[in-house]
């Protein structure tokens, strides 16, 4: 506020009419700021009760795109934010080497595929515990009466409130089975959410979710049934010929649109290369050129040990310049951008500094 008031004070002695205009414009702008605050609050509430678009430690996003942060998520785990907030390169190098020593269980100063697999599984378990904690908080938000379960109607009211509807009016309409008067897009989202709700509702179905069932509803990666639902959605989006599976050409197809410049073309080319490698090396388990629902379920399961081992081997291969099938400290530092999202320059000096 101080920086904003200083120029106004300077205008007062010489330009009173201009000061008045500035103050008038400033005052008229304030409701827009309040509106933005309300909008942000609504978005925050919506994010608390909707299944997240992004799932930490899961290779594919809901829309079938590769999770570009996956390697950082399974390498840094819950230390990601702390690593990103520390902008001092020397501190980052030391933190990276601390992580290296934790992964290197037998302290031979190199990381094997088995050690990396164990680390990936450990970080995945951390992601699960974090999801459980967040889900518990969100469950309380949609269970105001504290009866330890949430009905579909209760949830529907909460969801529509985040869309700007009045909670009492919505509750009354639902109670009397009246038309909710919602737009087509909101109706489509509601139908999709109801499908997820049914799948999260363990037999016998009663449309009442307990806290653990609500966790499955929000985080499909932690429930086999919900994983299957997510897999079906991804296959539906990728499958172009209707055979309920997808080929390499279907998987690498980019969204419809034109590339406006060479930089955009380079990004698209890189995306195609990444998706092709992912398909051939990890998703298509039997290497027959077709990915079935079972193969995609195994690939998407964050606690699948076989998938974690394959991922570990791929991560090592990216940085394994010595071609000995191990990761060594200098390789991790040199390829720090792959493992942490941050490029640490002068890695040779870093080795001398840290060891």
From TrEMBL:
InterPro entries: CAB45_EFh, EF-hand-dom_pair, EF_Hand_1_Ca_BS, EF_hand_dom. This is 45 kDa calcium-binding protein. It is found in: Golgi apparatus lumen. The keyword DNA repair does not apply. GO terms for biological process: calcium-ion regulated exocytosis. GO terms for molecular function: calcium ion binding. The keyword DNA-binding does not apply. Residues 35-55 are annotated as: Disordered. The lineage of its organism: Eukaryota, Metazoa, Chordata, Craniata, Vertebrata. GO terms for cellular component: endoplasmic reticulum; Golgi lumen. Residues 91-126, 130-165, 226-261 form the EF-hand domain. Residues 1-29 form the signal peptide. Residues 36-47 have a biased composition (Basic and acidic residues). It comes from the Eukaryota. Belongs to the CREC family. CDD domains: EFh_CREC_cab45 (cd16225). Keywords: Calcium, Glycoprotein, Golgi apparatus, Metal-binding, Repeat, Signal. SMART domains: EFh.
